[in-house]
Amino acid sequence: MSGESRDVQTLLHDRVLAPLRLTEPSARAQGYQTITSTNPDINDNGDTMSAETPFTANKPASDDKNTHTYYGTADAPADGTTATPKDVRASTSSSEAEAAAVAAGLSHLEARQTRWYSYFLTPDFWAIIAVGQLLSLCITATNTFTSFLSSVGTIIPAFQTLFNYALLTLIWLPVALHQHGARKWLGIVWRDGWKYFILSFLDVEGNYFTVLAYNDTNILSAQLINFWSIVCVVVLSFVVLKVRYRWLQIAGILLCCGGMGLLLASDHITGSNGGEGRNMLRGDLFALLGATLYGVSNVFEEWFVSKRPMYEVLSFLGIFGVCINGVQAAIFDRTSFADATWNGQVAGWLVGYTLCLCLFYSLVPLVLRMGSAAVFDINLLTANFWGVIIGTRVFGYVVHWMYPIAFVLIICGLVVYFLAGNILGDSKKPWLGDNQKDGVAGIGTAKLKALNEARKKGLAGGSSQV
């Protein structure tokens, strides 16, 4: 450096910087960058200063432009406050470390030598089968309680489902508020509330129109049309979520549908299809609409739970479900509510219905994460089998010889569906980007499996979200 340059710097230091105390340690603590070093790229502590440093010589780091508000990240401050540049750097470092760990974990998992039966040896496959059958039992139980209510003239489809959404709110909203904090939770309402409203609306209306269909058409027609929900799920997943099904997966779906066809055929042979409905055309149209709404809502929920924590999705599903179902019940169930039978037995059936349906809703995200909306719908095909088993004990039904064959076909269809799958099955979602970077590291997700694999190999610490 020339003598003239040193004289200019000395003059600048004595006349400008010294009175402002910009070269003191306290100034650096307040976020100012010192410029008294003889090397313009080195600060007083010997640390290299990037040319893109967020600090300037005349602006504190606490300026609004240097503060950052988090939304929907695991590194967000618990109280929902803004983050300083130090927080941002720590968050960025943490995110980059997590991304590297996920990439390493996925590489380890997908590099394993696998055989056609490898996925069947994983806990995920058996968890999907077990949880799927539990969901089928829950559906069977809710149908049984609904039959009990109908038998005494209590037909209130919107009102009886209202309690389920209220219970979901009571359980999951406190969890969401505790995890996010009130301020951050309100930010989610502002940004994503309309999306959750659409999800809840699809779910509520799917329930409502399906119940209406069973009042107007026979059971055989309603169940045949419910196959349409599987078609909707496959088409929407292919077009919207960019899922690409292999031939074995399509064969598995068709095999499951064949098993369901046997169930329906046995119902027709034994005359247990409900006979002629009150208004077959209207009932079939309601069933078709309900199946379509179910298919769309299942795909939408799979998209949500793979990106957001389960407690957040379930809490909003409950909140908006209460609002939508409450308005619908007030409009359409007033007459039937007044004419319904009310006693202790009816109250017990409503409690049983609510508990079973709440358990169903709370477990669905696990199947959607470990599997997919298609796997979820296929699992529910076995609900008819369990319904007959319960019917033999409660309503005196006789099991037709086709039922065990149909049940085996549906389970075999699930096995065939996963024959061509890798060790991650359907848990690795194509719409979450490379290394699942847009996904949440929650229970059942490929991202959490990759992180656990990386930790096992000593490549990461990391944290997960439910």
Give an account of the 3D structure.
The protein is mostly helical. The chain has 2 domains: 3-66, no CATH class; 115-421, no CATH class. The chain has helices at 3-20, 25-29, 85-110, 123-151, 157-180, 182-216, 219-225, 227-239, 247-270, 280-307, 310-332, 334-339, 344-370, 373-379, 383-394, 402-417, 446-456. The two termini are 58 Å apart. 39% of the residues are buried.
What is the compact description of this entry?
The protein has 466 residues and is an all-alpha fold.
Task: State the share of residues found in helices, binned by percent.
Answer: 55-70%
Low-confidence stretches: 1-6, 15-81
Number of strands: 0
pLDDT average, as an integer? Answer: 76
Distance between the termini: 58 Å
From the helix content, strand content and strand pairing, which structural class follows? mainly alpha
**Alpha-carbon Rg, integer:** 29 Å
Element-by-element helix/strand order: HHHHHHHHHHHHHHHHH
Note the beta-strand portion. under 5%
Membrane topology: Multi-pass membrane protein
Biased composition (Polar residues): 35-56
Organism: Staphylotrichum longicolle
Biased composition (Low complexity): 72-88
Write a concise keyword list for the protein shown above.
466 residues, 17 helices
